[in-house]
Amino acid sequence: MQLPQSLQKYQDVSPEEKDRRLIKGATGTFYDVFNFRPWMISLHDIATSLSKKCRWNGMINIDGIFTIAQHSVYVSRSMGSDPYYRLMGLLHDASEGPMVDMITPMKRALPDFVHVEDHIQAMIYTHFDLSITPAMEKALHVADRLCLEWEANQFEREWEDMQTDRKIFDVFPEGCLDSSQSKKLFIAEFNAIMAEILTR
């Protein structure tokens, strides 16, 4: 996948600068967010990172954390029965694995960050053989919003246009999991989805 034109400027740097940009993943694989390649994608690294990052910038009224990995599983479960839709839901925040989860006001102020994030996210979708359609994007928007509202209710966060009558607790039976548990849940969800895709 070709690097977007907006990111080409990051390639015109010295080899020393490129070397300083390398990040080592949990599996030992090195990657560069400004020069991301498909072979840098590791489900283990994504699951490890997302299971150690808290939603809502950590500003939630519980003693523990609510991880991006667990949020991703719940979005996946809210995407319907089609396994490709569920896989998209599971991976919709996967770019935050090699990168970080940044609050929305900061993203608005840093368009280059958004370009890098979008490029990595598109590459991850392609790597896992997902061809994203407008219908899938619409379903993701609805599922992500539904989970957002559920989280806001759970963690006493205010959110505009809350539809508090939407009850989805039966979809999310686990409660808040720690990092190790949410990583296992994320990987188990991925394996279940892939098993369904491969046996169709």
Structure description:
- This protein has a two-stranded antiparallel sheet.
- It is built from eight helices and two strands; from the N terminus they run αββααααααα.
- α2 (43-50) packs antiparallel against α8 and α4 (83-91) runs antiparallel to α8 (179-198).
- The relative contact order is 0.16.
- The chain is mainly α and 200 residues long.
Short key terms for the protein model shown above:
two-stranded antiparallel sheet, 2% strand, mainly alpha, 200 residues, 8 helices
Stretches where pLDDT is under 50 for at least 5 consecutive residues are none
Provide a count of the helices.
8
The H-and-E topology, N to C, reads as HEEHHHHHHH
**Main β-sheet, spatial strand arrangement:** 1-2
Principal-axis shape: globular
Structure class? mainly alpha
Question: Percent of residues in beta strands?
Answer: under 5%
Quaternary structure type:
single chain
| Major sheet size, sense and barrel closure | 2 strands, antiparallel
Helix content: 40-55%
Count every beta strand, where a strand is a DSSP E run of 2 or more residues. 2
Mean pLDDT: 87
State the distance separating the first and last CA atoms.
Answer: 28 Å
The radius of gyration computed from the alpha-carbon positions, rounded to a whole number of angstroms, is 17 Å
